[in-house]
Amino acid sequence: MHSSLFSLARAAGLGLALCSTLASAQPPAQQKTQVPGYFRLAVGDYEVTALFDGYNDLSPKLLKGLPPERIRALLARRAIETPGVQTAFNAFLINTGKNLILVDTGAGQCIGETAGMLTRNLKAAGYEPEQVDTIFLTHLHLDHVCGLVDGNKQPIFANATVYAAKPEADYWLDPTALSRVPEQARAFFNIAQDSTAPYVAAGRFKTFTPGESPIAEVHTTLEAGHTPGSTTYQFTSRGQSIVFIGDLVHNLAVQFEHPEVSISFDENSQNAIASRDAVFSEAASKKRWVAAAHLPFPGTGHIEALGKRFQWVPVEYGPYQRAPHVPLID
Ligand SMILES: [Zn+2]
Fold it and tell me: The domain 36-314 belongs to what CATH superfamily?
């Protein structure tokens, strides 16, 4: 082996003089850019593309249900020792062959410079915003709806119909809500209303009762708790399923081992915990793909049940479609 490599190098004319010249040259400048924020996965005949919109840092203090030192220890096991936990904003594009569907839209212009990358990454993935015909919102928090509009509150998805569960839309979009809710909560209602407003005005915002299927290929389920109308969207093709779970989990290091830990953003923490447990258990037993809005990008993987606890099994990078005949090394 070594001698043949050596002959190859000689044949290529790689003499010692050339080697020493290369060794003294400056290395090229560091590129300091990241790969585009998309990841592709085939689920049966459906193409699923995870899109990275950005991130923010969440304080561990937001997690409720365990002593702070236990939470710190769980984070340290994953080498997280910064004051905040980097928390991704993931959205997902599904091309069924009949529809181009976006699940959630990221934080758009609402968070600052660490978010609002969805459109760029959607284009990098080979699509244009105008090609999206259907948008499913898991709920109406700002990091899921702000990406519907640009900085001038104009719609980004010019041809899409936006769907949200009726209990979710009723809660956030009720025009009288602003007079009922505490001052500090009003901004969240304003953002939900402003982001959906151009779609409502154009007759392209629709609600559904969870359990109904706005399009034939999707199965919707109410998983309330994080918000009153938090909804999961499930697609099945050729025996494979993927469920888009929105904000049923925010922290990889803590909430799989301790699914009973809630986060301050949960409107009803007991219901949020029950919803997480039900969806995790079913995804584990049915071996579904799971796509989550805030797990580390691409937020896609499987869940394994370990008694009352769970374990996240992230998707592995690889070709979009596996070769039909993969040689087995045994
Ligand atoms: Zn969220």
Answer: Ribonuclease Z/Hydroxyacylglutathione hydrolase-like (3.60.15.10)
Give 141 Cα–ligand 1 centroid separation in angstroms: 6
Phi–psi pair at 16, nearest 5 degrees: -65, -35
User: H helices of 113-260, where?
Assistant: 118-124, 142-145, 166-173, 177-180, 186-201, 252-255
**Beta-carbon neighbour count of residue 127 at 10 Å?**
19
Q: Are strands 134-136 and 161-165 parallel, antiparallel or unpaired?
A: parallel
Q: What is the pTM of this model?
A: 0.92
Mean residue pLDDT of the chain comes to 93
pLDDT of res. 81: 86
State the Cα–Cα distance between residues 153 and 147, nearest whole angstrom.
Answer: 10
pLDDT digits (tens, 9 = 90+) for 205-254: 999 999 999 999 999 999 999 999 999 999 999 999 999 999 999 999 99
- C-alpha R_g of the chain: 23
Which residue, 150, 138, 125, 129, is CA-closest to 36? 125
CA of 299 to the centre of ligand 1 (A): 12
Q: How far is the CA of 207 from the centre of ligand 1 (A)?
A: 20
For 248-286, the pLDDT digits (tens) are 999 999 999 999 999 999 999 999 999 999 999 999 999
**What is the 15 CA–ligand 1 centroid distance (Å)?**
58
Cβ 135 vs Cβ 102: under 8 Å: yes
Could you give the residue ranges of the DSSP H alpha helices within the chain? 2-11, 16-24, 68-76, 118-124, 142-145, 166-173, 177-180, 186-201, 252-255, 269-286
Q: How would residue 20 be classed by pLDDT, with cut points 50, 70 and 90?
A: low
